[in-house]
Amino acid sequence: MIRLALGLLLTATAAGSSYVSEIEAWRQKREARLKAEGGWLSVEGLFWLAEGDTPFGSDKANAIVLPAHAPAQAGVFTVANGETRFRLAPGVTGLLGGQRVDEGLLRPDSSDALALGPVTLHAISRGGKPAIRMKDGESARRREFKGLRWYPVRREYRVDARWVAYASPRSLKIASVIGHVDAMPSPGYAEFSIRGRKVRLEPVLEEADATELFFIFRDETATKETYGAGRFLYADMPKDGRVVLDFNKAYSPPCAFTPYATCPLPPKQNRVPVRIEAGELDPRVLH
């Protein structure tokens, strides 16, 4: 009997240790992506474009001012017929898809990036409004970042929730920090108890063929220990009426690291009156 009890204890300890290692490995990858070249720490500008020409370069007379290590007069963006095109100034070397270019098209919210040395320029569109997002591989924000902090890994925050599917996906209005509202499909909701309180969270699908549920939520740790606007959490698709929400993997949105992101905000029903002491802490306390 003693041997059996000891064996069960060792098995449980090993399983717990394996789980902690799994979460810590996930967190390390999360930080590596953040600090990587082209990660959110390198985002140093967001410029909204009007129809017609918009000059860009490091000279402050440009409508889009690039970092000092970029060409003074780099070129012009042109918005016409729903497209964002660029034309570089004579003598300026640019790369698009690794190929040298003098002009070209930037598809919004794609992998297209016009590279001018360590500076890359990406087209985005929000609510039909075109913009240029600038990333700088030499960003001081990226260079001086001291790393992420997290709550300790606690198994009880890996929640096996009841999943209630809607007969057909509902349209959920998701506002962003720039005031734009997107209608996103929500296939159902997760319901569970935490710290003695019943909680219900409604996810959205980011794409029509999404393979994960995307939860945007805010709890009572916000502004105190975690990022004030809320946090993100992804979960595998439900199975047999259940969905696993691992709050040890809850993390801060890009807006916690750069003022040039366009983050979605938690819908009213995902602002829960309970402390979820798991996941990523507010990164701003590191600086």
Order of secondary-structure elements: HEEEEEEEEEEEHEEEEEE
Task: Find the count of extended strands (DSSP E, 2+ residues).
Answer: 17
Strand order across the largest sheet: 1-11-10-9-6-7
Helix content: 10-25%
Rg value: 22 Å
Low-pLDDT sequence parts: 4-12
Q: What kind of oligomer do you see?
A: single chain
Specify the structural class. Answer: mainly beta
The number of helical elements comes to: 2
Please, what is the average pLDDT?
93
Please report the distance between the alpha carbons of the first and last residues: 54 Å
β content, as a range? 35-45%
Shape: globular
Q: Can you describe what's shown?
A:
The structure is a single chain. This protein is mainly β and 287 residues long. Helices cover 13% and strands 38% of the residues. The protein has helices at residues 2-35, 140-143, and strands at 43-48, 52-57, 64-65, 75-80, 83-88, 94-96, 99-101, 103-106, 114-116, 119-126, 129-136, 158-175, 181-194, 197-201, 212-217, 231-236, 242-246. Strands 1-11-10-9-6-7 form a 6-stranded antiparallel sheet, with no helix packed on it. It has a 5-stranded mixed sheet with strand order 3-2-4-5-8, with no helix packed on it. Strands 14-13-12-17 form a 4-stranded antiparallel sheet, with no helix packed on it. The longest helix is centred in the N-terminal third of the chain and has 34 residues, at 2-35. Residues 4-12 have low confidence and may be disordered.
Short note summarizing the structure:
The chain is mainly beta and 287 residues long.
